[in-house]
Design a protein that fits this description.
The chain is an alpha+beta fold. Helix content is 36%, strand content 19%.
């Protein structure tokens, strides 16, 4: 059986690249990465 690979892209539209929005997105990404879901923030 072929394993499907999931990828989630988070879009940070904040003016502060390392601000609260980025912290929140990264917190969610940590949980997704533990489930072997690939993540990327743009």
């Amino acid at each position: 059986m072929k394993e499907s690979k999931e990828k989630l892209i988070g879009i940070n539209g904040s003016a502060r690249m390392d601000g609260n929005t980025a912290i929140l997105i990264n917190t969610v990404f940590e949980e997704l990465n533990q489930e072997r879901i690939e993540t990327e923030m743009v």
